[in-house]
Each structure stands twice: as C-alpha cells, then as structure tokens.
Amino acid sequence: MELNSAKPGLLCSLEASQSQRTMYPYVTGTSVVALKYKDGILMAADMGGSYGSTLRYKSVERMKPIGKHCLIGASGEISDFQEVLRYLDELTLNDKMCDDGNSLGPKEIHSYLTRVMYNRRNKFDPLWNSLVLGGVKNGQTYLGMVTMIGVNFEDNHIATGFGNHLARPILRDEWREDLSFEDGVKLLEKCMRVLLYRDRSAVNKLQIANITEEGVTISQPYSLRTFWGFSAFINPTPGAQ
C-alpha cells in the first residue's frame, strides 16, 4: 500500500511505530546521594525500580563504574540510563583506542554528559535522568551532577530526586572535609534511612560505592536497620510536620 493512499489513522499509527524517543518515563529509580570524604568519593543508591507508582523491581543497579577513575549514578528512567551507559562505553573505548597514555577523568566525562543532556533537550528528545558523576584522578576528587535539561554543577555533596529535599539538609549540617570512610558511610546511611521513611519509591535494599585513587568498589546489596514505632507513623496528625 502506498502511504499517499493510506487513511490518516494508518499514517498516524505508522509514524507512532517509528518513534524511538521516551515520551514518558516508565520504570524509574529514585534518589542518588554522594559526598566527598578525605580519601575520595562515596555514593549510595537503593535498588528499587518503580513501574509508575508500583515498586515492581527490587534489584536494579543504578551505579556503574566508568573507566578507571569514575563512577556514575542515576535517578529517573532506567532505559534512558542504559542509553547513557552505551554512550559512555563508546566514549571510553574511543579514548582507549587512542593509546596515548592518557585517560578521561571525571571532569572530562562530566563535561561530556552535560553536552549530551543539553543536546538531547534541545532536540525535544531528553534523556529522563539526573546523573551524578564522581571520581578521583591525580589526587583530585571531583563530584558533579547534571539534570535532564543540562543544568549542571559540582559540589562537596550531591543528591537527586527527593534526596535533594530530604538528604541535602542533613549533609549541610553534618558533612565536613575530613570525614573518614566510616563516618562517610554512616552519614550516607542516615540519609538513605530518612529517604526510606519519607519517599514511597525507596526500598530497603541499597549499595554504597567507594571511589579512590586505586579504583572503584561497589558493595553488595544490604538492608538498613529501621524503626517504625515513631508516634508520627503510628498515629499521623493531618497537617503536622
């Protein structure tokens, strides 16, 4: 059948079948929280994947190492994050093929991601993610983030999603430059516990990643100890904080 002689409804269905862009996020992950400590970067994310408002998946890994020096974490649409990882695989492969003795660091990869996200936003085909990029290279720690429309910054601590409202106040009060690894993990766990209590999309199964000059390590999934006996949980008061 020639398209010129096809009915309008058929043309619409054919055009829709050829569309490859993400019109709405379907399977999404919630907050990523990261901070600098005295030896590197710590990053935490739970493993929940929400299908709409349903917590459908409980083992979604949202933190991935990039090359030798970097780690990326993502909230938002999981399939779009997989597309970002494909871009980064091509980037690091091309960099390795140059064989010039140099490798991309976290600052360069963060700059690349800001261009990718802003370019896709300008084409009205955004990647529905907020990305956190951390790394250590030549003794310098770096932590930055970029949103789905290309807004980007770097800071000593970062959180996406509800973490930006619930975890950042805790980090502003308790973060310090000389945090040890143990204190940094405790601070991240405190943030993740608050998110578990307050964010319906959070699950009690998380991973914490450590980025140092030696490389990236990601913990096995584990659960936090929680307490649900607070009076506000048992007898909530409408309008109370």
From TrEMBL:
Main localization (coarse): cytoplasm
Keyword Cytoplasm: yes
Superkingdom to which the source organism belongs: Eukaryota
Keywords annotated in UniProt: Cytoplasm, Nucleus, Proteasome
Binding partners and assembly: Component of the 20S core complex of the 26S proteasome. The 26S proteasome is composed of a core protease (CP), known as the 20S proteasome, capped at one or both ends by the 19S regulatory particle (RP/PA700). The 20S proteasome core is composed of 28 subunits that are arranged in four stacked rings, resulting in a barrel-shaped structure. The two end rings are each formed by seven alpha subunits, and the two central rings are each formed by seven beta subunits. The catalytic chamber with the active sites is on the inside of the barrel.
Function according to Swiss-Prot or TrEMBL: Non-catalytic component of the proteasome.
Protein name, entry field: Proteasome subunit beta
